[in-house]
Specification:
Length: 369
């Protein structure tokens, strides 16, 4: 056995070796509608202004107090309640990982003898399970109902059985794109509080949704609100943020790596917030295009489109593999989610793009059914 083989077999964790890395599809030359990105770029005049600001940064220095300027700007943008604080992450993915790291309590009296665990409805965002596994926590997925609603009774039973450290509720959910029943959410949050669990309301797609949990955040001291600027229009910047009670954020912030937000990311985000009306107009266009897509899908035989509160539409087709391959052959890349969960059998996830991209996507879909 070579030294490399010895390391691979005996030093890399067995569960890591058995995992699949997060896959990013090759989109070269394609109409890219697979990753829920904002399809609009900055106007040319703003590109020039941002370039000047980034060029003047002291890249030879570690990030400084400018990060606090960003925290305050995001708190104002999100209308953060009094008594709350904000924590920044290199995308919301990092914040999800840091939550798992902070809450990875070994079995014992504090956890009623159970290993620390994470609980979330499934199908859902894959990073909830992946971050739990990487930090040594158990992950318990609770299937949604057939119409992708929360199974309230099953969620409450799972909370009682597993006593999770963290419960994730995506609002709207990915990949189903729907908002869940408020009464069921409230019931789950109350049960989580009784068991000493954190509840994380993940609002990654908030710019496109008709509702937010922000106005209810102060009701429960064990609820955190997670957001990202990726769907706002800055997917390439990698910036997530989390709101919660000051005392709770102070503890979670202790596991955050120093200087985790680069000066470039910080300045890009500040610039975007200074021009948030541009991004609000882009979100409005995406919502309008979403309605056009949903209307067009109703006329396609064999296609079932589900209601959406995000910048994506979930559709069920007769043969997801065949349709995905056909659309790809027509130069359109979407996401085949049919193997993610049994509830998603023959489902594709379509990102909402520009008007021209959406027309191309719909034509490719029709030709590929």
């Amino acid at each position: 056995m070579t030294p490399l083989q010895n390391i691979l077999q005996h030093r890399i964790r067995a569960d890591v070796r058995s995992m699949q890395a997060y896959a990013v599809q090759d989109a070269a030359g394609m109409v890219k509608l697979d990753a829920m990105e904002n399809p609009h770029r900055l106007p040319l005049a703003l590109q020039a202004q941002l370039g000047q600001r980034l060029g003047a940064l002291a890249l030879n220095r570690y990030p400084d107090g400018r990060v606090n300027d960003l925290r305050h700007a995001l708190a104002s943008y999100a209308q953060m309640p009094e008594g709350f604080d904000i924590m920044l992450g290199n995308g919301s993915d990092e914040l999800i990982s840091l939550l798992a790291l902070a809450c990875a309590v070994p079995p014992g009296a504090a956890t009623h003898g159970l290993p620390a665990s994470v609980l979330a409805p499934v199908p859902g965002f894959v990073m909830y399970a992946m971050s739990a596994q990487l930090q040594g926590l158990a992950f318990h997925g609770v299937p949604l109902t057939l119409d992708f609603e929360l199974d309230e009774a099953a969620m409450l039973a799972a909370i009682e059985q597993h006593r999770p450290a963290i419960i994730y509720l995506a609002y709207p959910n990915n990949p189903t794109a729907n908002l869940w029943n408020d009464t069921a959410i409230e019931s789950i949050i109350l049960a989580a509080g009784e068991q000493g669990a954190l509840v994380v309301m993940d609002e990654a797609y908030q710019p496109f949704a008709s509702k937010s949990y922000i106005d209810r955040l102060t009701r429960h001291s064990h609820v955190l609100l997670l957001r990202t600027l990726s769907k706002f229009g800055l997917a390439g910047v990698r910036l997530g943020y989390m709101l919660g009670p000051k005392a709770l954020i102070a503890e979670l912030d202790k596991v955050r790596p120093p200087y985790n937000i680069s000066v470039l990311d910080c300045e890009c985000a500040l610039f975007a917030l200074e021009h948030q009306e541009v991004f609000a107009a882009q979100a409005q266009d995406i919502r309008a295009q979403r309605a056009i897509i949903l209307e067009a899908l109703t006329g396609l035989p064999g296609v079932q489109a589900y209601p959406s509160e995000a910048n994506m539409v979930l559709v069920r087709v007769p043969d997801a593999g065949k349709t995905f391959d056909g659309m790809k052959a027509h130069g359109v890349l979407v996401k085949n989610v049919s193997r993610m969960h049994a509830l998603l059998a023959n489902c594709l996830r379509l990102t909402v793009g520009t008007a021209a991209e959406n027309a191309t996507m719909l034509a490719a879909l029709k030709a590929s059914l």
